[in-house]
Amino acid sequence: MKRYVIDTSALIRAYLRDGPEVEKVSSVLDAAARGECLLFAPELLLVEFASVLLKKQRQALLTKAEVKALMGDVCTLPLRLYPHAPLVGLALELASEHGLSAYDALFLALARLEKCPLLTADDRLALRARREGLH
Questions:
Q1: How far is residue 25's CA from residue 42's CA, in Å, rounded to a whole number?
Q2: Can you tell me the distance from the alpha carbon of 131 to that of 135, in angstroms, rounded to the nearest whole number?
Q3: Which residues pair with 38 in a beta bridge?
Q4: Are 127 and 104 in contact (CB under 8 A)?
Q5: Is 10 helix (H, G, I), strand (E, B) or coil?
Q6: Pairing of strands 2-6, 79-82
Q7: From CA 57, how far away is CA 93, in angstroms rounded?
Q8: What is the number of domains present in the chain?
Q9: CA-CA distance, 45 to 57, in Å (whole number)?
């Protein structure tokens, strides 16, 4: 079964369309909903997603009801969420090696751990994932 790690930037684009959509994200989300592939993410994804929604709400780009609905949708996705503790050591190593933030490196660490592609809208992170053979 195909497996992917998805980061917040890719997931946000799938829901808000406020930039170019990441290739494959919609089809991967649909396949995951049908049980045809597995999606992984660090637990951080939920907090980052909520933070983006709140920022959009404060900018009057989303209503409180829209934020609640979007967050509800994301919480029902068939995502396998990983705790941070097992990823932090590798994430720190990857962050140092690739000049990434610890936040971004968590997603890269999980992709390496699960040996699967990383779906991201972040060009810099995508480049690092390609260098790791994870894109």
A1: 17
A2: 8
A3: 3
A4: no
A5: helix
A6: unpaired
A7: 35
A8: 1
A9: 18
Determine phi and psi for 52, rounding to 5 degrees: -65, -45
Please list, in sequence order, all residues whose beta carbon lies within 8 angstroms of the beta carbon of residue 87, skipping any fewer than 6 positions away: 42, 106, 109, 110, 113
Domain that holds residue 84: 2-131
134: amino acid identity, one letter = L
What is the domain-level CATH number for residue 14?
A: 3.40.50.1010
Taking only the tens place, the pLDDT of each residue in 54-81 is 999 999 999 999 999 999 999 999 999 9
The answer to whether the pTM exceeds 0.85 is: yes
Beta bridge partners of 5: 40, 118
DSSP classification of residue 7: -
The model's pLDDT over 31-42, given as tens digits with 9 standing for 90+, comes to 999 999 999 999
Calpha distance 11→75 (Å, rounded)? 12
Q: Residue 7: which of 124, 104, 90 has the closest Cα? A: 104
